[in-house]
Design brief:
Helices cover 35% and strands 28% of the residues. By secondary structure, the chain is an alpha/beta fold. The chain has a single domain, classed as Alpha-Beta Barrel (TIM Barrel), CATH 3.20.20. An 8-stranded parallel β-barrel has the order 1-4-5-6-7-10-11-12, surrounded by 7 helices.
Length: 253
């Protein structure tokens, strides 16, 4: 069995870490540089950094913040938000990112995935997907863009498969319904995609208890679990998560 990963997620707005519920009611909760350094020291496996308003505002990500975070951590670091083309991918990598997450622009211009994969490798291109329950879609889930604000005509499972075919090396699968609720990941969605693609799938949105992470990594078939609120608000620690999972037979890094 491959080891599972625990990934800290920092949503950043105006240079500050922020957290909301279902992509709304965001509150600023800290400095992303200091929080990243603390999670790294605590043993987090990876870090994901989303500039949550870059796509909505039509601008690039805060690369100065990316540079300051990268100078403090020495683990895989993924950056998303405002990545519109290969030049933006290159700029994020030069600022210190190891991977980039593409979401809105990938839906609008899917070639960004294949072009980025050719230039920098599949492992560099991560599909960020925001999905919401919708019985009108074949899989039961519709893809949203622009920070969860805009529905698309794309089915979540179909888009996941297409993105992998284009060259995405990983998928961060975020449930809008579960995001920030602390009521658990959207396991049916996570399992559906994980069983249908050949790349790692990262469960995102809804972690509130240690049991939720165990469920995502076992029943949900996820390769990794993204955690935000549980760490940000001190509900648990990285060590606490890893110890809990290890005691239940989940191999973690």
């Amino acid at each position: 069995m491959l080891t599972k990963r625990i990934i800290a997620c920092l949503d950043v707005r105006d240079g500050k870490t922020t957290k909301g519920v279902r992509f709304a009611e965001n509150l600023d909760i800290g400095d992303p540089v200091e929080m990243s350094a603390r999670y790294y020291a605590d043993g987090i496996d990876e870090l994901v950094f989303y500039d949550i308003t870059a796509s909505v505002e039509g601008r690039h990500a805060f690369l100065d913040v990316v540079e300051r975070v990268a100078a403090r951590i020495f683990i895989p670091f993924c950056v998303g938000g405002g990545i519109g083309g290969v030049d933006d991918v290159r700029a994020a990598l030069r600022a210190g990112a190891d991977k980039v997450s593409v979401n809105t622009q990938a839906v609008r211009h899917p070639a960004i995935i294949s072009e980025g994969a050719r230039a920098f490798g599949n492992q560099c291109m991560v599909l960020g997907m925001d999905a919401k329950r919708d019985p009108a879609m074949p899989s039961g889930y519709r893809v949203y863009i622009r920070g969860g604000r805009e529905p698309t005509d794309r089915d979540a499972l179909q888009w996941a498969r297409e993105a992998v075919d284009l060259g995405a090396g990983e998928i961060v699968l975020n449930s809008i319904d579960a995001d920030g609720t602390k009521e658990g990941y959207e396991l049916p969605l996570t399992r559906l995609v994980a069983e249908s693609v050949t790349v790692p799938v990262i469960a995102s949105g809804g972690a509130g208890k240690l049991e939720h992470l165990y469920a995502a990594l076992s029943a949900g078939k996820a390769d990794a679990a993204l955690v935000a609120s549980m760490l940000h608000y001190g509900d648990t620690t990285v060590a606490g998560i890893k110890s809990y999972l290890a005691d239940r037979g989940i191999l973690v890094r």
